[in-house]
Structure formats: C-alpha cells, structure tokens
Amino acid sequence: MLAARMVYSLLDPLQGREAGDVLREELEIGIVAWRNRFDRVRASRGRFGSGRVPREKGAPMSQAEVKIMTRLNGPLLVTGPVTLVDHEGNSFDLGEKQSIALCRCGASSNKPFCDGTHKTCGYVAGETAPVR
C-alpha cells in the first residue's frame, strides 16, 4: 500500500494541494523570472532599451567626444572613440581607427561601411543643419 501511495504521489501533479494554489505558485514563479530577465536587459541596455547610457543632467561629456558629419552625396563620417554594434549585440572590429565612414546610399558591398559606391550609383543627399 505504501508503494502504491508513493507512485500515486509521483504521478499526482497537485500532490494533495488545491489546483488554484498550484497555478498561483507557477504564475508567481513565472512572473519573478520575467521581472528578473527584464531588469537584467534594462540594466544592460540603458534607459528604454535604446542602448544609450544615461548620464546625469548637467554632467559633462567625456573629453573625447564623438562627432558625426554628413558628407555631401556621401557617407556619414564618424570620428572619435566609438564602438559599432550590430542588431545582435556583436561589435564590429574597427581596429585602431579614429574615424569610420558609414554607408547612407545602401549600395555598399561592405555594409554598414562605405565603399565609395555612392559616387557611381547616383546617390544624392545634401541635408544641412538649420542656421541658428
């Protein structure tokens, strides 16, 4: 009889508890796991998942600032210490480069980097910043 009771207890998912209690426990475990994952992702990606690391209001920027310049009918020229990361979080190897050109025309065979194809594909871009 004892062996039969042990087998029954192994097969009985409720194991003497009410179905509502078991469901509540499972939901609480799931919610806690979800919150922990969300907190880890939010902490690793910065505010609102943008990848941006927030800084305090009024805090000075680092002395080595990044500058992004649009080139007439050409790429975006990025100068300064940057890390370029793909949509999966993998970093591109930039070596010791202090500037990189990012493709805007969409025709580069070395995306996201510019390979000069904009000169032959007819790409036109002449955006300017508003005069202050």
Report on this structure.
By secondary structure, this protein is an alpha+beta fold. It has two helices and three strands. It has helices at 2-11, 19-45, and strands at residues 67-70, 76-79, 99-102. It has a three-stranded antiparallel β-sheet with strand order 1-2-3, with no helix packed on it. The N and C termini lie far apart (89 Å).
Put the structure in a nutshell.
The protein is α+β, with helices and mostly antiparallel strands and 132 residues long. The chain has helices at 2-11, 19-45; strands at 67-70, 76-79, 99-102.
Helical residue percent band? 25-40%
Lateral strand order in the biggest sheet: 1-2-3
Q: Beta-strand percentage?
A: 5-15%
What pattern of helices and strands is seen along the backbone? HHEEE
Coarse shape: elongated
Distance between the termini: 89 Å
Number of strands: 3
Please give the largest β-sheet.
3 strands, antiparallel
SS-derived structural category? alpha+beta
Rg computed from alpha carbons, rounded to a whole number of angstroms = 28 Å
SSE inventory with pairings:
Layout: H1 2-11, H2 19-45, E1 67-70, E2 76-79, E3 99-102
Antiparallel strand pairs: 1-2, 2-3
